[in-house]
Amino acid sequence: MPKIEYEIEESIILKTPKMYRVLLLNDDYTSMEFVIQVLMVIFHKNEQEAYEIMMKVHKEGKGLCGIYTYEIAETKAMQVKALAKQNNFPLKAIVEEE
Ligand code: TYC
Questions:
Q1: Index of the ligand 1 atom closest to the CA of residue 92
Q2: Residues 36-65: pLDDT tens digits?
Q3: Chain-centroid distance, C-alpha 61
Q4: Residue 43 belongs to a domain with what CATH number?
Q5: 32 vs 43: CA distance, rounded Å
Q6: Is 31 in the pocket of ligand 1 (CB under 6 A)?
Q7: Position 7 in a domain
């Protein structure tokens, strides 16, 4: 009985993941419309949220798109890079530990 309790407790501790921020970086060439599309398609923002994040990045140099577990954060940053490349934009996303 105590062994079962210990194992349950341990599995709860081990399953608490570190979280990672995905941030978009500003540049002079990517269109505002494309950044809004990226935020809607990859980060599931609505149009208003996407516009606000895009403007923050445009004015301040970077902005938070979302906070995820490591693999999801890295995947989203790669998707940004791939979609930007397909559309000939230099848009970049970075991943930072929370
Ligand atoms: N600065 C870009 C422009 O004026 C717009 C832009 C916003 C680009 C956010 C990248 O992550 C970005 N067209």
A1: 11
A2: 999 999 999 999 999 999 999 999 999 999
A3: 16
A4: 3.30.1390.10
A5: 16
A6: yes
A7: no
